[in-house]
Amino acid sequence: LSLKFGDIGNLKGLVIRFLLTTSYYQLSVQNWFSLHRLQLLYNHSIQATFNATRIYAPASYSYHCEHVSSLQRYDALLIPSSANDLSKLWEVTFIDFQIQGFNIQEGHFAYAKDCASFFSPAILMGLVMSLILLLVLAYALHMLIHLKSLDRHYEGKASPAYFAQMKDNDMGEEKEPLRSRGNESYELRNQQFCKIYI
């Protein structure tokens, strides 16, 4: 495929050529096309050549990508063909790039295979946040189960510890007489409560 700019100012004579190949893959039982190479021509002479990587789709589909570029910040899908080539002097970036080389019907693109990978930064962030929320939920459930087991532990225990010594035992053994001025008084032997009975 050739993209010609025609008579557009300084771009007159500039041609961008896309070299596409098609192959049949038995595993998918269909033909796939791929962008093999991109060439920049100016006044009918090749100025730069880039090898394309990971730009492919089924032959009945089109290929779409937000950025197809030779720059590293856009994942560099276009790589200079050789170190001695003038390609390193060029920076090529296509924005909202879509291409289809075969099976074009009524001049419209077919369904597009997007270049977004299954593990894009947004998807990875969503997975990390989901993992954090699951860990928090698991910790909360663990704490709730732990609290319930403590409640059962204390419910099973009787708690008469504070009143164990207030039973009505033999009062004769717990009291001893006090002698003062002819009045008969009794005092508890157990001085825990500090009470005097007269």
Automatic annotation (TrEMBL):
The organism's taxonomic lineage, starting at the top: Eukaryota, Metazoa, Chordata, Craniata, Vertebrata
GO cellular component, as recorded: bounding membrane of organelle; cytoplasmic vesicle membrane; endomembrane system; proton-transporting V-type ATPase complex
Subcellular location: Membrane
Entry superkingdom: Eukaryota
Protein name, per record: VAS1L protein
GO biological process: regulation of cellular pH
Main location: membrane
Source species: Sagittarius serpentarius
Pfam families found in the cross-reference section: Ac45-VOA1_TM, VAS1_LD
